[in-house]
Amino acid sequence: MRLYFRRREEEKIRGINSWTLIYGRRKTGKTTLIKNNLKMDFYALIADSNNAIDLNDNIMKIDDVIKEVKSTLSKGGTAVIDEFQRLPEVFWSMISNWKREGVLVLVASSYGIVNKVFDRNSPLLGLFLPMDNIL
C-alpha cells in the first residue's frame, strides 16, 4: 500500500494557468504532484531523444508527442511534458513559434535546464514562468 501525504504545493499546482516550467531535484515528487493535482488533457514523459510515454503507457515518437501537445494547446487544453530536459533542443524552436494558447507545463529534474531555458539566447526565453522551490 502506498501512502500519499498532502503537500502545501498542491494548491500552487492546481492554480497553474499559464505556460510554466516546474523544476527541482530528482525524486522529490514533482511528477506525482502534477498527476494528482493538475487537470491535464495530454501528458507525455520523455523517455529518450526519440520516444515518450503517455499516461496509458503507450510509447510514442517525439514528433507525434509534439503534434499532440500543439493540438491540445490549440484547443485551449492543458499539456504536460515531463522530463523536458531530455527533449532535443531542436523542438524548442518549434515550441517558441506556437501561439500562446492553452496551458503548457514543462517538468524538469535538472537545475541546468533552468539556465538553458531562461538564457538570453534561448528560443523559450519569456514564454514560461518558473516554478521552483515547490518541492
Derived structural class = alpha/beta
Question: Can you identify the CATH class?
Answer: Alpha Beta
Tell me the series of helices and strands, N- to C-terminal: HEHEEEHEHEHE
Radius of gyration: 14 Å
Strand content: 15-25%
Shape: globular
How many beta strands in the DSSP annotation? 7
Integer count of domains: 1
CATH architecture: 3-Layer(aba) Sandwich
Within the largest sheet, what's the order of strands?
4-3-2-5-6-1-7
Mean pLDDT: 92
Q: Please give the share of residues in helix.
A: 25-40%
Count of helix runs: 5
> Mind describing the biggest β-sheet?
7 strands, mixed
Low-confidence stretches: none
- CATH fold label: Rossmann fold
Distance between the termini: 23 Å
Could you explain how this protein is built, in words?
It comes from Stygiolobus caldivivus. This is AAA domain-containing protein. It holds the Pfam family AAA_14. The protein has 135 residues and is of the alpha/beta class. The protein has one domain: Rossmann fold (3-Layer(aba) Sandwich). The protein is 30% helix and 22% strand. The protein contains 5 helices and 7 strands. The protein has a 7-stranded mixed sheet with strand order 4-3-2-5-6-1-7, with helices on one face. It is globular. The model has no long low-confidence stretch (mean pLDDT 92).
